[in-house]
Design a protein that fits this description.
Length: 215
């Protein structure tokens, strides 16, 4: 080993020259280790199929973000009317089952009043009977039956009647000559004014000099 400055012989491992004092370490050559080359994997090159079109015939389409609105979808598809697919369907109205009211149930049952003169009237609800039946100010009736009585034995508003459920009732309206009820198989009775009497079909009712039957 020799000092490169003064060419003096140096022992192995010396760091400084004993003659000139030069540093031996700065002049020593540092071996350079070259990395061994790495073999690249072989790539198999195959020829393109004969039936594929040339590369220049392909067109590159830039990527687009997907659109989710119905309007944009319709715009992208030309010639196809898809508006019906995105319209809000009309609300469906479902009617609740309807039950008959009390008055409608009452009207399903009817009775027939036949006067002694042969005239008959079908009744389904409440009403008045007399020479000139007139309701009070706070009253409403569906039937007003006018009877002819030249002798005036019948009051202007002689009887009131009504249908409740499957039954018919009558009531004397404070008449002058009163009302007698004659039910089949029952002793005749005089009606008390303002009292409701349920009568059956086949009943005869005398009012003044006239009468009627219920069927």
């Amino acid at each position: 080993m020799v000092c490169e400055v003064c060419q003096s012989a140096l022992p192995d491992g010396a760091l400084f020259c004993g003659e000139c004092g030069s540093s031996v370490s700065r002049t020593q050559a540092i071996p350079v280790v070259k990395p061994e080359p790495v073999a690249e994997p072989a790539v198999e090159v195959t020829s393109a199929p004969a039936d594929l079109p040339p590369a220049e015939s392909f067109t590159t389409v830039p990527a687009q973000e997907p659109e989710t609105t119905s309007t944009n979808i319709i715009e992208q598809i030309e010639g196809v009317d898809l508006s019906e697919l995105f319209e809000t369907p009309p609300a469906r109205v479902v009617e609740a089952p309807r039950f008959a009211t009390e008055n409608e149930l009452t009207s399903m049952v009817s009775f027939t009043i036949t006067l002694g003169t042969g005239e008959s009237v079908e009744i389904t609800r409440s009403g008045l009977l007399g020479r000139m039946p007139t309701p009070a100010e706070d009253e409403e009736f569906e039937h007003l039956i006018v009877v002819s009585d030249p002798g005036r034995s019948v009051s202007k508003t002689h009887l009131e009647f009504g249908v409740e459920g499957n039954e018919l009732w009558i009531s004397d309206r404070k008449s002058g000559n009163g009302t007698i009820i004659r039910e089949p198989g029952v002793v005749p009775r005089r009606a008390q004014p303002g009292t409701h009497y349920t009568v059956v079909r086949g009943t005869r009712v005398d009012f003044g000099d006239l009468h009627l039957t219920i069927s």
